């Protein structure tokens, strides 16, 4: 599981996108009851707050104390710190379990056991994530040449599960069809660089060698952005997998 300190949690909270509103609407129509949902590895609560619009109670957990410290408070969301593979939730408690952009970090054998314990019979499991980002031809070239070229040896092996949209993960639930959802953000160049800085590989490289490569990338990206204050539409390729407890 990726670890966070206070500074990286702040960057994560500020830089990471919220997920498509249509996802939560669709999800709410797939459950028999909108009682209780678990947002596993909730981070700073990006999904937890949106889930609260459709469920009576949201249990949100993360292994990182600093992530929970940065989480947005909400009267229907209960945040706790512990690993998703071993929780204190009651048996057969949840109508749905959600994992936003985090399944690749888990010990999956242990996590699936825990999900089967806490999910109600017929309950829903939904996981989702996104890969990379696209801005425009010139901007994408800068990111490739000045950022990605530095990160190749710093990506954790778990990232490959994400890049392949979790197709390599054995999914022990009865799969259900999921509509296509699109994830777009309107970001300035500074917001885009904050997002890049929040990547796991970028954080690892910064720990080893500092952030000179990002300083240089920021300068070049601003030169092709035309107006650094202008927000551009960023596309984040988005995927969802869902299944029901057999």
**Percent in strands:** 15-25%
Known CATH architecture: 3-Layer(aba) Sandwich
CATH C-level class is: Alpha Beta
CATH topology-level name = Rossmann fold
Helix content: 25-40%
Judged by helices, strands and strand pairing, the structural class is alpha/beta
Q: Can you tell me the overall shape?
A: elongated
Distance between the termini: 28 Å
Describe the sheet with the most strands.
Answer: 7 strands, mixed
- Could you list the spans in which at least 5 consecutive residues all have pLDDT below 50? 1-6
Query: How many domains would you count in the coordinates?
Result: 1
CATH homologous superfamily name? Vaccinia Virus protein VP39
Secondary structure elements and their pairing?
Elements (H helix, E strand, L loop, with lengths): L5 H10 L5 H8 L7 E5 L5 H6 L5 E6 L2 H5 L7 E5 L12 E7 L7 H11 E12 L6 H15 L7 H5 L10 E2 L8 E4 L1 H9 L2 H10 L2 H14 L6 E4 L2 E7 L2
Parallel strand pairs: 1-2, 1-4, 2-3, 4-5
Antiparallel strand pairs: 5-9, 6-9, 7-8
Helix pairs in contact: 1-8, 6-10, 8-10
């Amino acid at each position: 599981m990726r670890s966070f300190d206070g500074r990286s949690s702040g960057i994560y909270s500020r830089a990471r996108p919220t997920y498509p509103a249509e996802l939560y609407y669709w999800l709410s129509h797939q459950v028999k009851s909108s009682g209780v949902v678990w947002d596993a590895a909730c981070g700073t609560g990006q999904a937890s707050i949106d889930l609260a619009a459709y469920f009576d109670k949201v249990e949100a957990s993360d292994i990182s104390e600093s992530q929970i410290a940065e989480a947005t408070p909400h009267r229907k969301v209960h945040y706790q710190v512990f690993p998703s593979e071993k929780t204190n939730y009651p048996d057969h408690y949840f109508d749905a379990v959600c994992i936003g952009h985090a399944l690749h970090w888990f010990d999956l054998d242990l996590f699936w056991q825990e999900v089967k314990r806490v999910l109600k019979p017929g309950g829903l499991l939904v996981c989702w994530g996104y890969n990379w980002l696209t801005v425009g031809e010139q901007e994408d070239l800068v990111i490739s040449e000045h950022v990605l070229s530095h990160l190749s040896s710093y990506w954790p092996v778990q990232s490959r599960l994400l890049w392949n949209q979790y197709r390599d993960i054995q999914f022990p639930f009865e799969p259900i069809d999921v509509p296509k959802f699109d994830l777009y953000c309107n970001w300035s160049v500074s917001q885009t660089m904050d997002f890049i800085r929040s990547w796991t590989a970028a954080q690892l490289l910064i720990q080893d060698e500092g952030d000179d490569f990002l300083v240089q990338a920021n300068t070049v990206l601003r030169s092709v952005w035309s107006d650094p204050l202008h927000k551009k539409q960023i596309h984040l390729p988005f995927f969802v997998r869902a299944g029901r407890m057999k």
